[in-house]
Write a structure and sequence with these properties.
The protein has three helices and five strands, in the order E-H-E-H-H-E-E-E. The chain is an alpha+beta fold.
Amino acid sequence: MPRVTFTANLRRLVDCPPADVPGGTVGEALAAVFARSPTLRGYIVDDQGALRRHVVVFVGGEAVRDRVRLSDAVAPDAEIAVMQALSGG
């Protein structure tokens, strides 16, 4: 199963430990994570299910291409990293 991890700043806001979840696409894997932690969804995707502007998702070290439908394929042993941009100064 793909493993989904989250940056420390997201883990401070929402309980989202690394998770091994089913899914053949980024969207399916994230849906499985959101089923476990529904509050996390609002930080990662918008009302239409697309990635928020300040969120980047990497699969095996490469940024996903489909930020709207999240249809990028993931292998059963994939590492999916979800990162939220920080701002400030």
